[in-house]
Amino acid sequence: MQINLTGHHIEITESLRDYVQTKFSKLERHFDQIHNVHVVLNVEKLQQKAEARVHLRGAEVFAVSEHADMYTAIDSLIDKLDRQVIKHKEKLTKH
């Protein structure tokens, strides 16, 4: 799985990059056919915003999360993506 990490109005530190890598490894445990992930971290005034586009086999999943803390926004983003990936996996197994 290839993760592209982009920051708007924020510098991507090594600790932030490692945090995103470890959190996205959770998605890979549930569905191993993830090709590419594009994550954008953005700061707008007091809101920290994390958004991600995940390219799966046969689909594309997108989620956005906002919070005052960037790490909490990333956690919430992973939870949203996890639910969507599991739903996609269930659709594949039913067909």
Walk me through what this model shows.
The chain is an alpha+beta fold. The protein is built from two helices and four strands. A four-stranded mixed beta sheet has the order 1-2-3-4, covered by helices on one side. The relative contact order is 0.19. The model has no long low-confidence stretch (mean pLDDT 92).
Helix/strand layout:
Layout: E1 2-8, H1 14-30, E2 34-44, E3 47-56, E4 59-67, H2 70-94
Parallel strand pairs: 1-2
Antiparallel strand pairs: 2-3, 3-4
So how many helices? 2
Q: Which overall shape is indicated by the principal axes computed on the Cα atoms?
A: elongated
Residue windows where pLDDT falls under 50 for at least 5 positions: none
The sequence of SSEs as H and E is EHEEEH
| C-alpha termini separation | 25 Å
**How much of the residues is beta strand, in percent?**
35-45%
Regarding quaternary structure, how should these chains be classified?
single chain
Based on DSSP secondary structure assignment, what is the total number of beta strands?
Answer: 4
Q: Please estimate the helix content.
A: 40-55%
Radius of gyration: 13 Å
Q: For the residues shown, what is the average pLDDT?
A: 92
Largest sheet: 4 strands, mixed
**Biggest sheet strand line-up:** 1-2-3-4
By secondary-structure content and strand pairing, the structural class works out as alpha+beta
Summary, kept brief:
It is built from 2 helices and 4 strands; from the N terminus they run E-H-E-E-E-H.
Q: Any descriptors?
A:
95 residues; 44% helix
